[in-house]
Amino acid sequence: MKKNKKIRDFFKSLKFRLVFLCMMVGIVSTVIIRIGIMSAYESRAVSNRSIDILSQAKILANQMVDTGYVDDTSSETITAQLEQLSQIYDGRVMIIDSSFHIVKDTYDLDTGKTIISEEVVKSFQGREISNYDSQSRYIEMTIPLVRNDPEKELQETIGVMLVSVSTDSIASTLSYMQNRALILGLIIAILLFAFGFLIAGRITRPFREMASSIQEIQTGYGDNDGELNIDKYTETVQICEKFNKLYSRMKMLDDSRQEFVSNVSHELKTPLTSMKVLADSLNGQEDVPVELYREFMQDIGNEIERENKIINDLLSLVKMDKSASDLNIASVNINEMIEQILKRLRPIAEKQQIELVLESFRPVTAEIDEVKLTLAITNLIENGIKYNKENGWVHVSLNADHQYFYVKVEDSGIGIPEESLEHIYERFYRVDKSHSREIGGTGLGLAITRNAVLMHRGAIKVFSTEGEGTMFTVRIPLNYIA
Question: Are 214 and 227 in contact (CB under 8 A)?
């Protein structure tokens, strides 16, 4: 099974494909060159042989016209020359008179017979015809025997010489060359395979180095704090840059996860520790006064309430971390939704003597998840109330344009230091930890708010001056973008 997998992996590898591509380019090029050379050689050889035969045939044709050989084939000299031409070129020569009768055949097979063919007819019209049959491997040419009549200034075709010559010698040479070319092609293929294997190994080496480096990173952060740096090619540089960005992001998420787990453990453990101390104090005393007992039990109740709030916020945050497909989108009257939020929070504001004001510039209806966005805006307004000054105010405004609606929450509170602004959306982050503990903050509210806004494809911004107040602006699309 492992062997089959290795074989499959090899055939899928870049190295194999480079070797295969190198071999295919080399072999195809060799085949094309071989075919071109063979074709050129054959065409050239046939052309040269045709020219040689034609030149000798014309000489014989002139002699036959001068001696009247067509009418009287008794001339031994011309007959011998015809036989010699036939033997030299391994061919056959026939002399045809004006009646299309064969008066001479060097093979002595068709003498006296009649031959009518397209080539012969065209030659009687004064044309020289030459054809090459590559399948039957012979050259056939017809040469007109033309007699000049000086008195009448006319040319008369008195016969035709038909020459058929075998090209077996050319075919044998071609076959020999093809065999040699095949052997040469095999040698080239082997050399190309070796060359391709070597080149492919060099080309893929940076990728193997990358794989090895990534393997090392998997076992830890490796050298250079997990940096991948293979600069052999532009592509490897680009891959390394993308990987390093991804790795940095993953490392940051991993660090964030570890910090989150640590913070959760700490936040959940603190109330339990307080309750245990209070309970141990009660158990360690005899005849505990009722007033002290009630005080301790009230403190234990407060710690339980604090633990419950942390757990509820954690559950809300987990729900926010799920995909946007979990959103329950519906068309909601935003004015009424914010009024309901303020109605619930007004008693808390009055208790702390905080003036709560709503300003709506126009009616707004949008496609949102009412539960999640209500939680987000509630957190912003509640923070404005909690982290405010005595006799302070929280101003909430609602506005919209053709594409978005805007919620602005502004307060006259203690403000946020400039160095803390970039961290306020981090989980369990507190600007003033001691003050946050006093008012029951968990450090999860703004993380929940930001997640809810982003799930609606919106945006949230914060502007704050320490000691003067804070303003949050939320922008949400009127129509939900899936």
Answer: no
pLDDT band of residue 394 (cuts 50, 70, 90) is very high
Query: Against a cut of 0.90, is the pTM above it?
Result: no
Distance CA(314)–CA(332), nearest Å, equals 26
Distance of CA 456 to the CA centre of its chain: 31
- In angstroms, rounded to a whole number, what is the distance separating the alpha carbons of residues 121 and 482? 85
Q: 337 near 358, Cβ under 8 Å?
A: no
Helices (H), 165-226: 168-218
Q: How far apart are CA 206 and CA 232, in angstroms?
A: 7
Q: Which of 231, 105, 113, 91 is nearest to 167 (CA)?
A: 91
Cα-Cα-Cα-Cα dihedral of 272, 276, 277, 281, to 10°?
150
Angstrom CA distances, 115 to 100, 111, 216, stand at: 6, 10, 89
Contact 228, 240 (CB under 8 A): yes
Evaluate whether 92 touches 105 at the Cβ level (below 8 Å). yes
d(CA 397, CA 386): 19
DSSP string, 74-100: T-HHHHHHHHHHHHHTTEEEEEEETTS
> DSSP labels for 426-466?
STT--SSHHHHHHHT--S-HHHHHHHHHHHTT-EEEEEEET
Residue 418: count other Cβ atoms within 10 Å of its Cβ. Answer: 10
pLDDT at 438 over 80: no
d(CA 161, CA 362): 110
Report the distance separating Cα 188 and Cα 182, nearest Å: 10
Can you read off the two tokens belonging to residue 5?
A: 């997998």
Residue 454's DSSP bridge partners are none
Give every CB contact of residue 423 below 8 A, 6+ residues apart in sequence: 429
CA 451, CA 26: separation in Å to the nearest integer? 59
99 — phi, psi (to 5°)? -95, 10
Half-sphere exposure of residue 19: CA atoms within 13 angstroms, side-chain side: 19
Place of tokens 């062997």: 3
pLDDT tens digit sequence for 154-178: 778 889 999 998 888 888 888 888 8
Contact 430, 383 (CB under 8 A): no
What does the alpha-carbon distance between residue 336 and residue 128 come to, in Å, rounded to a whole number?
A: 106
Q: How many CB atoms lie within 10 A of CB 250?
A: 11
